[in-house]
Amino acid sequence: MPSDTKARILAVARELFVRQGVQATSLRQISERLGITKPALYYHFSSRDDLVRSIVEPLVEDIEGFLRERMPGGDARSLLEDYFDMIWRHRDVIVMMVRDLSTLGHLDLGTRMFEWRRELMDRLLGPELTMAQRIRATVALGGMSDCAVEYAHLPLEEVKPTAVEAAAVVLGL
């Protein structure tokens, strides 16, 4: 369990990274906002990349756990609903990554995200997909992620039903 100071650093850094972007946020800004010294911040995080990695890691763990738990051939609509719930929980981190795409490169997330999407497609529709099915699945899953980012300020119950239904229609479910 993270210390109170570490948790406060993560919360403030996440807020500033989402609002300003990772590259536009200095460790000095974070430490000043918290009323702590930069050495105190460095005690908990060795670098900005270390701090970003700590913020992104729960998303990575959730996605990888989701893919481990979901077996191919299950109920596709239920999988879409559960996937949307997961990305919704991490929408601020997704906003942070989209706002500053260099974050993906620093943490080698770009390649991993495409691998996760292919695995999710296999669980939704099976491994033997036509190119048209792959394209539709890319639109469906990407569209759901975009909805979590674009409409993050709205209540979940207003966004999720429409996003999941649109994805299901695109997939022909």
Automatic annotation (TrEMBL):
DNA-binding region: 26-45
Molecular functions (GO terms): DNA-binding transcription factor activity; transcription cis-regulatory region binding
Record-linked Gene3D superfamilies: Tetracycline Repressor, domain 2
Keyword field contains Aminoacyl-tRNA synthetase: no
Domain HTH tetR-type: 3-63
Record has Oxidoreductase as a keyword: no
Keywords: DNA-binding, Transcription, Transcription regulation
Pfam families assigned: TetR_N (PF00440)
Record protein name field: Transcriptional regulator
Organism: Nonomuraea gerenzanensis
